[in-house]
Amino acid sequence: MHRRAPILIAIAALAFAGCSPAAIEPSPTASEPSPTPSFAALASGVYAIECGADHHDPDGLALLSDEAYLVGGWNHVNGVGSFSTVALEPKDYAISANNYQPDATCGGADTLAVVLAKKTYDWDRQHANGIESAFADEELTFADVEAVVLELRFDPERSVLPTAADYEERYGDLLTPEQLAELDGGKVNLEVTLFGNGATPDQPLMNGGVMVELDPVEFADGWVRIKVPREDLAFYTEANYERTPVGSDEFQDLLVQGLRINPETASGNEVRVYVGDDFDPRAKPELFKEMALAFSFIGVERAGSHASD
User: Fold this and answer.
1) 246-288: per-residue pLDDT in tens?
2) Going by DSSP bridges, is the β-strand pair 188-195/205-214 parallel, antiparallel, or unpaired?
3) Is residue 94 part of a domain?
4) So what's the pLDDT on residue 17?
5) Rounded distance, CA 289 to CA 303, Å?
6) 118 lies in a domain?
7) Is 30 in contact with 61 (CB distance < 8 Å)?
8) Could you tell me how far CA 219 lies from the centroid of its own chain?
9) Angstrom distance (rounded) from CA 138 to CA 126
10) CA distances from 295 to 114, 119, 209, 273 (A)
């Protein structure tokens, strides 16, 4: 079984996103193991807000706000094959400026509505869609990053969060009760990654990430501010989907190229990770975890700035 232990342990909060036009997500092939997210505990900085009421660091990097739209992403959902079992129409999963509209729940400010979907059965194109922001021209080094900030709202009416009973009914013949419990917990999970350049002979592919989760009951249909401080980011290098943890003082002079947000299960795994070589991708229809969100702000605070919380 191609399973790797997570770097750290998971938590309770949510995460963030951003991108350049139509980024293409690199997906594992049938012979490659599913990349396990870097887990890191978000110790604080999650609270309910009145949307649009907070002030943001003027020296920070705003990727999405009422005045900035520097995001894009990818969408694999085409309505056929393994993507035929999603709850909505394929166009509903697009990361599109058409969904950046005035929002009455945010005082009329523009927000970006997205439905992020994650496969729970097979790892092929496991992140059905996702958000990415590229900002290489900012010349932001990993050492410059003080925090990642986002403000968002969860929309339960457009979301599909499989329950423990749903997973048991679909995968109970393949996974043990312990594996089912580990796979997912029915909450909103996202992995936020600050990514660097691809590996070269002189430097590795450097990343800094965090896995966070939002309780859909506690924060149902209300605005939330999440601040991921630098100390809660897990830094690692990556080669061929294998992640090697590094210290927060290593490779910090390398430039951050952008930020990516992937929809996830709580474990970051799919059923295929547990089943291993006996896995049959055609044996079961795909069960998607679908998280409908609206983002009002996405940004990166720089070291030395003094943002208002």
Assistant:
1) 999 999 999 999 999 999 999 999 999 999 999 999 999 999 9
2) antiparallel
3) yes
4) 34
5) 35
6) yes
7) no
8) 18
9) 30
10) 8, 22, 19, 31
